[in-house]
């Protein structure tokens, strides 16, 4: 799954800024329409369908698109899906905003890490020495038989 995500992130289209933002708002609009269609089933979770829109905007375009998608999603949800009184919706909206911003930031960090070093999601590349998740042997250890030996 991480290889698919990294491959998808590496072929990021380089559209102008206004096109990326317009497409990000289109993703939020699709989530809004899906929420309208599924309102009876998703009434307790009014923000759930906006998370994939934020994730896709962040992965396909960039962090700024994810931030825009987060703000637009929160505004639409607050206006149309959060029941009154507004003071009861402050905590869920703040948690949603923090989650969306973190999601946008993490996808940008993954994109940057992949672009800089090609090290993937685990933090280092696989160089053929053991399994990718296995710790590589270090050169800074002392060999026990020769530790106490003096001279050749």
Task: Explain what this protein looks like in three dimensions.
This protein is mostly helical and 152 residues long. Helix content is 58%, strand content 0%. The protein contains five helices and no strands. The chain has helices spanning 2-10, 17-37, 50-60, 63-81, 90-117. Helix 2 (17-37) runs antiparallel to helix 3, helix 2 runs parallel beside helix 4 (63-81) and helix 3 packs antiparallel against helix 4 (63-81). The protein is globular and about 75 Å long. The protein starts with a helix and ends in a 35-residue tail after the last helix. The model has no long low-confidence stretch (mean pLDDT 78).
Major pleated sheet:
none
> How much is the average pLDDT?
78
Tally of helical segments: 5
Classification by helices and strands: mainly alpha
How do the helices and strands follow one another from N- to C-terminus? HHHHH
Short description, anyone?
This protein has 5 helices and no strands. With 152 residues, it is an all-alpha fold. The radius of gyration is 23 Å and the shape is globular.
List keywords for this structure.
58% helix; single chain; mainly alpha; 152 residues
What order do the helices and strands come in, and which of them pair?
Blueprint lengths: L1 H9 L6 H21 L12 H11 L2 H19 L8 H28 L35
């Amino acid at each position: 799954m991480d290889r698919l995500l990294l491959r998808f992130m590496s072929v990021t289209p380089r559209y102008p800024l206004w096109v990326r933002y317009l497409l990000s708002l289109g993703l939020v609009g699709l989530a809004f329409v899906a929420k309208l269609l599924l309102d009876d089933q998703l009434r307790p979770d009014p923000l759930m369908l906006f998370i994939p829109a934020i994730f896709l905007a962040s992965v396909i375009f960039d962090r700024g698109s994810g931030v825009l998608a987060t703000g637009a999603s929160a505004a639409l949800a607050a206006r149309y899906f959060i029941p009154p009184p507004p003071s009861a919706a402050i905590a869920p909206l703040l948690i949603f905003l923090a989650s969306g911003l973190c999601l946008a930031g993490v996808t940008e960090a993954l994109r940057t890490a992949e672009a800089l070093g090609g090290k993937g999601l685990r933090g280092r590349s696989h160089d053929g020495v053991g399994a990718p998740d296995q710790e590589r042997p270090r050169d800074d250890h002392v060999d026990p038989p020769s530790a106490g030996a003096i001279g050749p």
